[in-house]
Amino acid sequence: MADFLNEFVKTVMDEIIQTDYPHIRHPALLYAQVKEIMSQGGQSCVTLQVLTEMKEPDDRFPLLPCVRTGFDLQAGETVIIGLLYGGCVPYIFGRCLDDSK
């Protein structure tokens, strides 16, 4: 009986987290690699690929196009990004200082 109750609570909590708090399943700050750089209306925009903790491409995330930035970035650089409150708009905090792979 206790196993059934534990499994029920786990299932209900997973559903609540998935529907009401999806942003807590992913870290607030992520590594991303600059894939492409372009200029739109005098402002620099980059395309980003989210990376895993081991700095490998993370297939759970699509490429993030047209991310505006004030940083002078180069293709291939690793940056730190944040997704505020689980949203889809990434903000670039800066270059990753530990660029070792």
How confident overall, as mean pLDDT? 87
The total of helices stands at 1
Query: Span from first to last CA?
Result: 48 Å
> Which structural class best describes the helix and strand composition?
alpha+beta
Assign the CATH architecture of the domain at 26-95. Answer: Beta Barrel
Overall radius of gyration: 18 Å
Compact summary:
It is built from 1 helix and 5 strands, in the order αβββββ. By secondary structure, it is of the alpha+beta class.
Account of the 3D structure:
It is built from one helix and five strands; from the N terminus they run αβββββ. By secondary structure, it is of the alpha+beta class. The chain has a domain at 26-95: Beta Barrel (OB fold (Dihydrolipoamide Acetyltransferase, E2P)), CATH 2.40.50. The chain has a five-stranded antiparallel β-sheet, with no helix packed on it.
What are the salient characteristics of this protein?
5-stranded antiparallel β-sheet; 101 residues; OB fold (Dihydrolipoamide Acetyltransferase, E2P); elongated
Tell me the layout of helices and strands.
Blueprint: H1 2-20, E1 29-40, E2 43-51, E3 64-69, E4 78-83, E5 90-95
